[in-house]
Amino acid sequence: MNFIKKNIYLLSFILVFLIPFIVNRPDYLSVFVITMIYILLALGLNIVVGFCGLLALGFAAFYGIGAYITAILAVKYGLTFFPVLFFVIIGSALVGLASGLPVIRLRGDYLAIVTLGLGEIARIFFNNFETLTNGPKGISSIPGPSFFGFSINTPAGFYYLLLFFVAISIRFIRNIENSHIGRSWAAIREDEVAASSVGINITKMKLVAFILGSILAGIAGFLFAQVQTFVSPDSFTFIDSAMVLCAIVLGGLGSIPGVIIGSIILTLLPELLRDVLPGFADYRMLFFGVILVLMMLFRPQGIFRNQRRKAEMRPASESIKNEEDESLAEDRRK
Question: Domain count of the chain?
């Protein structure tokens, strides 16, 4: 089984790596680039929602903060790729910390409403603080990535840059998931009282989740600003937060492969179907809604369920029965 999984992962990586050679049209390749940005965003939100169980509805705020930090530092102060990336990571972490402190004590609907408010506050700030953000007109002429004497200005170059960041993020998240921090998040998601009773620092672990998620969202905004060369408040609305959350729910909460598949279904697939089905764009939100309703009815765990969440989606009686069957089988072997 492990051999088959490794081969599937290897073939998937080879296919993803060869996409710029397979896809000859630059406009299609640009859609792949945007999809990679959404995958990075979804990976960040999956830390907060999927691993730690905190329902955040204003995640586009961190996405926009990363993009505006990039635009301001690159256009107004002339900083290059790596210094801007450093400030984006630090700035996103500080914003994640500052916004996480007042909301980590909230749960459920209250947490969702407050995070939604934070997202709207960020958008209004981008729109009204004209001396810094240029208001509704946005910031244009953002230079593309340039480092070690190389400049990236083609869809293929952007694709490989995004692929590098996504691969590094997946490796980092996988290591965190299997660490003490990841197990603490799982315990908090299941039962905060029980997690606190065994010595887990609830406040600290939630803050770590918020900070790491906001850093990944900030990096996604950093790359988005350089790919599009323009940012405005309209690029970071509640719809973006909702789309990323839908991708996670569709793919499977807490599942990294699920996050990737969900992001592809919600961002890449509709664009590829534009030429095949000309009227699809007018009804795609209806299509997404139908898909989500069907998923909630027939597969609430998502397309790829996380291994640690399998027991959550089964009735208690079924879990007990399975444990009894395993115990009887073990006794017979003895």
Answer: 1
